[in-house]
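Hi support team,

I've been running sequence recovery on a batch of backbones for a student project. Most finish fine, but this one hangs at about 90% for roughly twenty minutes before it completes. I'm not sure whether the input is malformed or the queue is just slow. I've pasted the structure tokens below so you can try to reproduce it. Let me know if you need the job ID as well.

Thanks,
M.K.
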């Protein structure tokens, strides 16, 4: 079932009802529970895993800014989008959303998407498109897929996983140095870097001038890339380039 809501009509359910000339109002909306989240066109978002508040959306904004944000929930996939056309909108409010659990996020635009998860999942996917950022805290997953596509976007993830797969085809970084993981596979195409901390195995694929920095001492390192270097980060942060194999 698809559910689309415009923040402009949320004044009817605002926790503080103020006239259009007011500075700001607090808005609260129930969009129903979801397990996937997509943010489009530069809306800054905080996601929090909380079953008691699942489906709730809250933010503070002037009525004119509130009307620039839409929410659409289609089969437990929540999409948050601004009314931007050719240029990103400035000064959009930071939106906080809640659900019982989360397994996938995507941020397409220049905003910061912060994700706070606390429920273990089998597989978690994160994808950044454009110049924005995704920050994930508290990850607990068997598998994690992290992807940064185009632009100068970035992805940062902290937590635990058994396997992780990273794909960086941008000029920005992927920082998984605080992700506890046994096996890591990195694909780089271009100048973007990946920081990671595998304990068992590291595989490097791709081409270009990017680097994979590993902050641990994995048992096995395989580099089948063209030009991408696997670099050990010592305690003094000096770079030690490992030979390709």
């Amino acid at each position: 079932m698809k559910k689309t809501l415009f923040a402009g009509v949320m004044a009817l359910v605002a926790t503080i009802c103020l006239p259009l000339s007011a500075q700001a109002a607090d808005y609260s909306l129930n969009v129903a529970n979801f397990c996937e989240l997509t943010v489009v066109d530069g809306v800054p978002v905080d996601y929090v895993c909380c079953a008691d508040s699942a489906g709730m959306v809250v933010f503070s904004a002037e009525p004119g800014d509130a009307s620039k944000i839409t929410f659409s929930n289609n089969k437990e996939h929540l999409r948050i989008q601004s009314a931007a056309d050719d240029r990103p909108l400035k000064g959009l409010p930071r939106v906080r959303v809640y659900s019982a659990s989360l397994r996938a996020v995507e941020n397409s635009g220049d905003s910061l998407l912060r994700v706070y998860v606390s429920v273990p999942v089998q597989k978690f996917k994160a994808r950044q498109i454009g110049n924005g950022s995704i920050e994930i805290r508290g990850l607990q997953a068997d598998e994690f897929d992290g992807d940064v596509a185009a632009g100068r976007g970035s992805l940062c993830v902290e937590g635990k996983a058994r396997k992780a797969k990273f794909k960086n085809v941008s000029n920005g970084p992927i920082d998984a140095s605080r992700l506890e993981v046994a096996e890591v596979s990195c694909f780089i195409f271009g100048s973007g870097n990946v920081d990671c901390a595998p304990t068992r195995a590291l595989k490097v694929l791709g081409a270009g001038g990017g680097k994979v920095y590993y902050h641990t001492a994995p048992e096995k390192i395989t580099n089948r890339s063209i030009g991408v270097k696997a670099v050990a980060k010592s305690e003094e942060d000096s770079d030690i380039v490992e030979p390709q194999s």
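--
Follow-up from support: It reproduced on our side and the slowdown came from queue contention, not your input. Residues 63-66 form the longest helix (4 residues). No action needed from you.
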